[in-house]
Amino acid sequence: MNEANKAPSIAAIEQTIKRLRNVLSVRVAGNGQGAIEEIHVLIDNKRSPKQVGRDIESALMSELGLRVDHRKISIAQVRGPEPPEAPPAEVRLKFLTIEYSLIPRSTSVHIAPRARRCASGGAAPATGEHIVFAGPAHGAGPGDSGARR
């Protein structure tokens, strides 16, 4: 309070409430005699309105010596930004077989993963060319392609 017999100003009440955690905005409505009629508070979604309401009552009592009936406090809660999508689950290669051969001047690898798709590739050091073919385990199918790098 500013003085022993003087009620705190509306601005002082609003400033006290604005400093509380999770409060986004506040408006206090008073009557002509300086008594509080309504307190409207907008909060985020990180804490419950009941917790914030208790914080408001405690803050006003401890800082300003002002006792407020909880029925005069109106709290609206807004949704925050949508949480980001969960990152995709860790992708791990699960395979049934791996075959490779090391022939002089070339290398080839054939992998048969569980998903019944296979990947084959080879490299020839003389040309420096890498060839990768991907397709179903039982031969190339629609949508599968070979890539040459």
In brief, what are we looking at here?
This protein has about 150 residues and is of the alpha+beta class.
Key structural traits:
2 domains, 2 helices, GMP Synthetase, Chain A, domain 3, 8 strands, 38% strand, disordered C terminus, alpha+beta, 149 residues, 5-stranded antiparallel beta sheet
Secondary structure topology:
Elements: H1 10-18, E1 23-30, E2 36-43, H2 49-64, E3 73-77, E4 95-103, E5 106-113, E6 117-124, E7 129-136, E8 146-148
Parallel strand pairs: 2-3
Antiparallel strand pairs: 1-2, 4-5, 5-6, 6-7, 7-8
Helix pairs in contact: 1-2
Explain what this protein looks like in three dimensions:
It is a single chain. This protein has helices at residues 10-18, 49-64, and strands at 23-30, 36-43, 73-77, 95-103, 106-113, 117-124, 129-136, 146-148. With 149 residues, it is an alpha+beta fold. The chain folds into 2 domains: 10-77, 2-Layer Sandwich (GMP Synthetase, Chain A, domain 3), CATH 3.30.300.30; 95-143. The strands form 2 sheets. A 5-stranded antiparallel beta sheet has the order 4-5-6-7-8, with no helix packed on it. A 3-stranded mixed beta sheet has the order 1-2-3. Helix 1 crosses helix 2 (49-64). The N and C termini lie far apart (78 Å). 8% of the residues are buried.
